């Protein structure tokens, strides 16, 4: 499954299952995509979702206590309920073990609640990063790992699941 956080269709460039043969036991299955934050295609009934996605944060609790629904208008988890994307994601992660590949996502706290749900799920086997090599001896692997750590409540799970840089790959 390709969980796309982008509003465009960049996932189509990865939609050849043979590209994932080295990782995929079911080599000839089709890659399914979920555009969790909607798309730019106004005809697909998948509206774009902008907003705050960190209900783990203490500030979110204070927003809820204001008892004013207008402050919750741009909360991602509430807007996920406008489509069945989130439900499809949960069905997928509940169906068996999975490995996460991260391509181009910063893993920052704007998606913290969703990433926490996926990263700490009992079926998550590992999290493999595809990082940007900026210059010789300079890349963003450690920055992504630091961001990933903020999405974990259980830091022992984080250290167990994030793949060591030696086994991760540069984006090409």
UniProtKB/TrEMBL annotation:
A Pfam family annotated for this UniProt entry: AbiH
Protein name (Swiss-Prot/TrEMBL): AbiH family protein
């Amino acid at each position: 499954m390709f969980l796309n956080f982008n509003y465009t269709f960049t996932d189509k460039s990865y939609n050849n299952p043979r590209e994932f043969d080295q990782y995929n036991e079911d080599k000839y299955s089709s890659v399914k995509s979920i555009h969790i934050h909607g798309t730019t295609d106004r005809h697909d009934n998948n509206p774009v979702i902008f907003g705050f996605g960190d209900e783990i944060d203490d500030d979110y609790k204070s927003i809820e206590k204001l008892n004013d629904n207008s402050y919750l208008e741009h909360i991602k988890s509430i807007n996920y309920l406008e489509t069945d994307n989130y439900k499809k994601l949960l069905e997928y992660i509940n169906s068996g073990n999975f490995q996460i590949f991260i391509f181009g996502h910063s893993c920052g706290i704007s998606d913290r609640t969703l990433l926490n749900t996926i990263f700490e799920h009992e079926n998550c086997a590992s999290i493999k990063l595809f990082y940007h090599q900026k210059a010789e001896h300079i890349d963003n692997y450690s920055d992504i790992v630091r961001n990933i750590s903020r999405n974990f409540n259980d830091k022992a799970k984080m250290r167990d699941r994030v793949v060591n840089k030696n086994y991760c790959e540069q984006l090409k």
